Amino acid sequence: MRRCLVAGIALLGTLGCGRRQPLYHDATAPIDLRVTDLLNRMTREEKFWQLFALADNIDPTRDSLQHGLFGVQWRGSASDSVHPTAREYAHHINALQRYFVEQTRLGIPIIPFEEGLHGLTLPDASVFPQAIGLAASWDTSLMSRVSTTIAAEARSRGVRQVLSPVINLATDVRWGRTEETYGEDPLLTGAMGVAFIRSFEQAGVITTPKHFVANVGAGGRDSYPVELGRGAVAEALMHPFEDAVHEGGARSLMAAYNSVNGEPASASRWLLTDVLRTEWGFEGFVISDAGGVGGANVLHNTATSYAEAGARAIGAGLDVIFQTSVRHGRLFWPAFADGTIPDRALDKAVARVLRAKFQLGLFEHPYVSEESAGSAAPSDASRALAREAAAASLVLLRNERHTLPLSPGIRSVAVIGEDAAAARLGGYSGPGVGRVSILDGIRAALPASAVVRYEAGVPRTAPGLLPIADSAFGPGLSAEYFDNITLAGAPRLARTDHNLSFSWPFGGPDSSFAYGWYSARWAGTVTAPAGSPMRLAVTGDDGYRLYLDDVLVLDRWQKESAHTDVAATPLVPGRAYRIRVEYFESGGTGQIALKWQPKEDDAWQGGIARAVNAARGSDAVVLVAGIEEGEFRDRASLRLPGHQEELIRAVAATGRPLAVVLVGGSAITMSEWVDRADAILLAWYPGEQGGHAVADALFGKSNPAGRLPITFPMAEGQLPLSYWHLPTGRGDDYADLSGRPLFPFGHGLSYSRFEYSDLSVASGNLLSGESVTVTFRITNRGPHDGDEVPQVYLRSSVGGIAQPVLALAAFTRVHLKAGESQQVSLRLPAQRFEVIDATGQRAVKPGRFVILVGTSSADLRLRTEFVIGQNH
Q: Do the Cβ atoms of 314 and 342 come closer than 8 Å?
């Protein structure tokens, strides 16, 4: 009888004597040997597809994916009429997985991935408070419980990677994605990120912290260029990512869209190789943001083709190209096919992907139990946790004359505002299960005898332009596009457009047009809708003209910034009009749209009048106001949009006790109304159980204890504004305004009052890497039980390059009953005292530090000095 072949020889494993299998299928073999074996069997095309990820409604047979695929964010099949349940989703993932495991040559499984910022972006999944709200809890143990629940729901469905969390610092609150972050502070962001990441990684779901290393630039604009040196600011931006790798155990990172030091982040050797792999020792894989690699060509102009962009990215240390269509693969394939990408770089990237798939156990267990997926859907326990998390996230910004809590026995309450009934969940959210609005929460919290008067008041956004339906243009518009800015000569492109609403931020109407140098003409008819009379409006950048029945009615044929003009002539409902629109763009982003302008009326004033009447007839008023934001929806103004400020002022004038509840994920300026609101409660986007949590706080069932993870400015002109900044060469103020914020980082009130005392510091030898323990006492002097969030800050006086004027060093959240006193001890590791030198190196150096303890970055109650290099 022949002896069984020894594992490892000839890269073969065994299935008993005489039965051989490829080594990569041997679960008992070391992963590195399995990776090498599989890599050696792969064609170049199979390697390419292991580096290609998709967010698409794929059909593997139809889309010719016989060579495999890294993974997919499955968006449902085109034939789906309803969103799939958890069980149905698992069934579809199993079907996809079965194709790749059983129908491809090597049987390499895919990694199904999803978004999971504060819950899976899937139906039949729990939705917790938005990320910025979870950060406002300042409670890492709560974060761990939330992320553990999300991870369990993900794993049960077959999701093995989440493109979360967002651990970029919100350095400018105009950024539309501030809501997705954990705020402006590197320590708080790092701690929250690690708590999130550990839960997923321990559950066998890979996390993908993003966007390495920054995603907001000048003016608070999404994906704007970032210039980084090697000083304290760069260290702050990198700190959460380093924590994610070293403490959280993240096995993936996502590169940012923007350029860093002139290179696309997805093709930066400094970031992806020098820092991430050489300095930090990261062994996982890096994935681009969706379409981010091609952005090197169409956005940054650092590559002449998609193939070159892909080659530069893989060469710099990127592993996975993430796109939104299978068809995009052919754009990148040439660089893989012709050897432009060296074998060594290609194999390193593929090996990192394969290693992750082996670590996940996908080769042995590619499928999930569809029955288990259904049982892991939202439960009473997950709903209770969502309510607890929402309660912990609420920030009481203002509470004059102890307006809150309202008496639970109150006879009547006016609830005002569109957002009171909307139950908005924020960006990157699933639909939620059993969403509870603030209005519903208030009604449920009050006895049946109480009167709740609801009025929507005014829309969140002011009535404005309305889109024109395709059907209004009949068979469509005859469109001519010219490769000049004067409509001269024959058009380069002629076609039928079924609407007139275009934005060309990265090029022109067609790839054959030069960036920012073209003109266009549309001609046809438009039929005015039935009902109220409309006017035609044009919004555009640069020049445009509108002809109505061959009469020129709008003429802005000059190079200007974006404008909107409304034709004076009201249109007769139901009548068809001949129209002609001419347009040119002579440099930069192109934008042109034809829209309806409803006849101006006083509807919003009527809404305010009805709200005022409801307030006058009630014992107290809860007015809910909200903002608009999101990805690629940065805000130039931080005021409440629409006529909500007028609504607040009008209701406040009734003299009834007024509590304003704010819904949104970023800062709001309030100079026009802050002093007229008796109380202001920041709800963020509080998740599917948020309505109950807000009501609990309003009526005293819970005591708000959230703290701001961002700074609220008084005015946009102060931005960017963060407590964490380097010293100025002179002063902080303006000639017409203070440099101080409206509400500082860490701010949050309580229904109780907390007193701090007895600060002491015990230290080991920090130069040898030991730690400092800061101890103090907190006493609840108020009438309510509640949580307090003590914060420890450091101020450095060590010589060298400039250090932050103040830096958060430690925090915790403690519960104290009324009258209770508790001693709190917080450990500050030696790393908290490291300073950055001129070469970018971190080290603990002899020098003087000030340790400050308080309730926010501006409300510091206790202070002591601490000198490194002296005995205590």
A: no
Lowest mean pLDDT among 579-583, 759-763, 833-837: 833-837
Element (H, E) at 851: strand 847-854
> What is the sign of the dihedral through the CA atoms of 512, 513, 514 and 516?
negative
pTM score, whole prediction: 0.92
Phi/psi-derived region of residue 432, left when phi > 0, alpha when psi is between -120 and 50, beta in every other case: left
In this predicted structure, the answer to whether residue 419 has a pLDDT above a threshold of 90 is yes
Burial (CB count <10 Å: 0-12, 13-18, 19+), residue 574: exposed
Asked if 822 contacts 754 with a C-beta cutoff of 8 angstroms, the reply is no
Alpha helices in 176-276 (DSSP H): 186-202, 232-243, 269
Q: Report how far apart the first and last C-alpha atoms of the chain are (Å, whole number).
A: 76
Pairing mode of beta strands 321-323, 772-780: unpaired
Query: What are the CA-CA distances from residue 369 to residues 89, 119, 216, 376 (Å)?
Result: 11, 21, 41, 11
**Range in 180-184, 440-444, 546-550, 831-835 with the lowest mean pLDDT:** 831-835
Q: Which pLDDT belongs to residue 15?
A: 45
d(CA 437, CA 460): 16
Phi-psi region of 846 (alpha: psi -120 to 50; beta: other; left: phi over 0): beta
pLDDT at 3: 36
Distance, in Å, from the CA atom of 420 to the CA atom of 404, rounded to the nearest integer, reads 18
What integer best gives the mean pLDDT of the chain?
A: 93
Q: What count of residues does the chain have? A: 872
Residue 798 has pLDDT above 90, yes or no: no
For 871, half-sphere exposure in the C-beta direction (CA atoms, 13 angstrom radius) is 0
- Across the range 278-307, mean pLDDT stands at 93
Q: Which amino acid is at 212?
A: F
> Each residue of 545-559: pLDDT tens digit?
999 999 999 999 988
Nearest Cα residue to 710 out of 192, 132, 226: 132
| Structure letter (DSSP) for residue 498 | S
- What does the buried/exposed string (b/e) look like for 726-760 if buried means 16 or more CB atoms within 10 Å of the residue's CB? eeeeeeeeeeeeeeebbbbbbbbbbbbebebeebe
Alpha helices in 317-379 (DSSP H): 329-337, 343-359, 370-375
Nearest of 720, 668, 666, 667 to residue 233 by alpha carbon:
720
d(CA 202, CA 218): 37
Q: Residue 214's Cα: distance from chain center in Å?
A: 12
- The CA distances from residue 459 to 419, 489, 638, in Å, are 9, 47, 17
- For residue 453, what are the β-bridge partners? 414
pLDDT digits (tens, 9 = 90+) for 743-754: 999 999 999 999
Distance CA(469)–CA(472), nearest Å, equals 6
pLDDT at 2: 33
Q: What are phi and psi of 31, to 5 degrees?
A: -60, -40
Percent of the chain with pLDDT over 70: 96
- Pairing type for strands 52-56 and 71-74 reads parallel
**Cα–Cα distance measured from residue 666 to residue 678, given in angstroms and rounded to the nearest whole number:** 21
SS (H, E, C) 572-626: CCCCEEEEEEEEEECCCCEEEEEEEEECCCCHHHHHHHHHHHHHHCCCEEEEEEE
Average pLDDT estimate for 164-187: 98
Q: Are 210 and 168 in contact (CB under 8 A)?
A: yes
Question: Which pair of tokens denotes residue 863?
Answer: 């202070």
H or E stretch covering 297: helix 295-298
H/E stretch holding 825? strand 821-828
Backbone angles phi, psi at 20, to 5 degrees: -105, 150
**Cβ atoms of 438 and 624 closer than 8 Å:** yes
Q: Are 334 and 307 in contact (CB under 8 A)?
A: yes
Mean pLDDT, range 758-787, rounded to an integer: 95
